[in-house]
Amino acid sequence: MKALPRKxxxxxxxxxxRELIGLHLVHLSNGKRKAGRIVETEAYKxxxxxxxxxxxxxxxxxxTMFGPPGRAYIYLIYGFWNCFNVVVREEGVPHAVLVRAVxxxxxxxxxxxxxxxxxxxxxIGRDLNGEDLCGTRLWIEKPKIFKKSTIARATRIGVxxxxxxxxxxxxxxxxxxxYVSTTTASLRFQALKK
Length: 194
Hints:
Elements: H1 6-9, H2 13-19, E1 24-29, E2 32-45, E3 72-77, E4 81-88, E5 95-106, H3 115-122, E6 138-141, E7 151-154, E8 171-174, H4 185-192
Antiparallel strand pairs: 1-2, 1-6, 2-5, 2-8, 3-4, 4-5, 7-8
């Protein structure tokens, strides 16, 4: 398969967040390929978006967000979990899309319903912060057989501090996937045992 071209990332964050649903996130490490079908994303449009890390300006942590599009922005939350984001728009405009959940496709045996869990399951660490997503180590690709999604929209998760920005419906997800982070444990169990 082939990584998405750079021009895919040089666009509006909301469009990309929606269009990522159904595509595959791939990490190639030590000759082992891990791939997951993206089923949940969130758009962040800093610096005016108070839910975005870029709202604090250019810092050592946010430097990647201000860089060229098509790069991985990976950061640590709660002192434990890594989160994977896609840098979008043109250089100097710090917009990004958080990938919140994937359905395992290849080489993944752990839980992937949440940004920290998916990074752990796919071996995505902060050493990949700034990685070129048009490269051969970490990328997003369109699968040979594209599974259609019923895409739903909701507010972002865990950003209540962001005032009116917290109410923006900038989270997109496959409404039929049991791997979406907000699916209840009982629904997930029923769907996964089929």
